[in-house]
Write a structure and sequence with these properties.
It is a single chain. The protein has about 400 residues and is mainly alpha-helical. It folds into three domains: about 40 residues; about 100 residues, Up-down Bundle (Receptor-associated Protein); about 240 residues, no CATH class. Helix content is about 75%, strand content about 5%. It has 16 helices and three strands. A hairpin with a 5-residue loop joins β1 and β2. The N and C termini lie far apart (about 80 Å). Keywords: Cell inner membrane, Cell membrane, Membrane, Transmembrane, Transmembrane helix, Transport. It holds the Pfam family T2SSF. It is a multi-pass membrane protein. InterPro entries: GspF/PilC, T2SS_GspF/T4SS_PilC_CS, T2SS_GspF_dom, T2SS_GspF_sf.
Length: about 400
């Protein structure tokens, strides 16, 4: 059970400090109130062996739930500090709880919600803080929080769709490799002594499989080194900053995956920028924050060029059209939004357009890839079976001739 340290005020007004065990921060608060102690500060106590190399990030799903709950409390007229206390007491996510405790302290010391959020980049994306700041200035905090929660929910759904589309072929590919490894590394070697004893002339497919079997049995260090090298390259591409640019360029060269990634990035761009413009964030600031939030170096480089043209007075629609990233329908939407002053609405429409196209491309990808992978695995298994059967027939044939 976690242990919490606290600072509280007793019935006489004196400050009391101590520690209390509880499953959640809310349980500790309730226990202190039962002892006639009014908690001023409660923090989770960490042991001597518990340390963090870096601040633990708050999951997007937890942030979405937090934003939606806070929107409800603000709309109901509950003070933000009380709302944060209630949400912090109920949340089971440790990283989010620490963030809420820190924000509550900042608010009680006279800070604003956006300033308090800005101190926790592990929880709040850059665009989130910019939208919060504009909402505070316009007095539309409840509606803005609700819009942010909706955006985070759609972002999670989009990410889930993309990951689902990309994970399926990887799983099938791994299964195919495992199947070949088992057949070549375990099944085929069982027949190898028989073939050697009979000194039979083996067909080419069988000799090829025996070579693979030797690789997985007697020269196992070669495939091990190969898989370690592949794992290291994958880690460098997907988990390090240095590998991000090559990975982004590589993925955009794969025909089918290219379309999925393009529409996922464009949907995110339109969704974030539309939310910021709707919240009252100045377009140059919103554009800068949105470009920084684009999770693709290739798109980011072109959008930065468009941003520079905008700052020089080149308008909005034309610089984006010149990037070559957006289809004709989106270009027209941007132009109409710029000319009629409904840019936030047009960006939202564009994001919905990209979302539908993304879903369509994902379905097309999975529909086309499933039979391809089934045929691929079938060919591999069939090749192994043919190699074994043809070898057995060859051995039987030679045995009959010798008799």
């Amino acid at each position: 059970m976690p242990k919490f340290t606290y600072a509280a005020i007793d019935a006489s007004g004196a400050t009391v400090e101590g520690s209390e065990k509880g499953d959640t921060l809310g349980d500790v608060r309730a226990a202190l109130l039962a002892q006639n102690l009014y908690p001023v500060k409660i923090e989770e106590k960490r042991g001597a062996l518990q340390f963090e190399i870096s601040q633990e990030k708050v999951k997007k799903k937890e942030l979405m739930h937090f934003t939606r709950q806070l929107a409800v409390f603000v709309k109901a007229g509950i003070p933000i500090t009380e709302a944060l206390d209630i949400i912090g007491d109920e949340t089971a996510d440790v990283a989010l709880r620490r963030t809420i405790v820190g924000m509550t302290e900042d608010l009680r010391n006279g800070g604003t919600l956006s300033d308090a959020a800005r101190k926790h980049p592990e929880a709040f994306p850059t665009y989130y803080m910019g939208i919060l700041q504009s909402a505070e200035l316009t007095g539309q905090l409840d509606q803005t929080l609700d819009n942010l929660a909706g955006y985070l929910e759609r972002e999670l759904e989009t990410k889930s769709k993309v990951m689902s589309a990309l994970s399926y072929p990887m799983v099938v590919m791994v299964l195919a490799v495992v199947t070949v490894a088992v057949l070549a590394g375990y099944v085929l070697p069982q027949f190898k002594p028989l073939f050697e004893e009979l000194d039979a002339e083996l067909p080419l497919p069988t000799r090829m499989l025996l070579g693979v079997a030797t690789l997985f049995s007697e020269l196992i260090y070669i495939p091990v080194l190969f898989f370690v090298a592949v794992g290291a390259v994958m880690f460098w591409l997907f988990k390090t900053k240095g590998g991000k640019a090559p990975k982004d360029k590589l993925l955009l060269k794969i025909p089918i995956i290219k379309g999925i990634i393009e529409y996922a990035v464009l949907e995110r761009f339109c969704r974030i920028l539309g939310a910021m413009v709707k919240a009252g964030v100045p377009l140059p600031d919103g554009m800068k924050t949105t470009v920084d939030s684009v999770d693709n170096t290739v798109f980011e480089a072109r959008l930065v060029e468009a941003q520079e043209v905008m700052l020089e007075g080149g308008g909005f629609a034309r610089p984006l059209a010149d990037t070559g990233l957006f289809p004709g329908a989106a270009k027209q939407m941007f132009k109409v939004g710029e000319e009629t002053g409904t840019l936030d609405e047009q960006l939202e429409v564009a994001s919905l357009y990209f979302d539908r196209e993304l879903e369509s491309r994902i379905k097309k990808f999975t529909t086309m890839f499933e039979p391809i992978m089934i045929v691929f695995v079938g060919v591999i298994v069939g090749f192994v079976a043919m190699a074994l059967v043809s070898a057995m027939y060859g051995v039987l044939g030679e045995t009959k001739n010798q008799m």
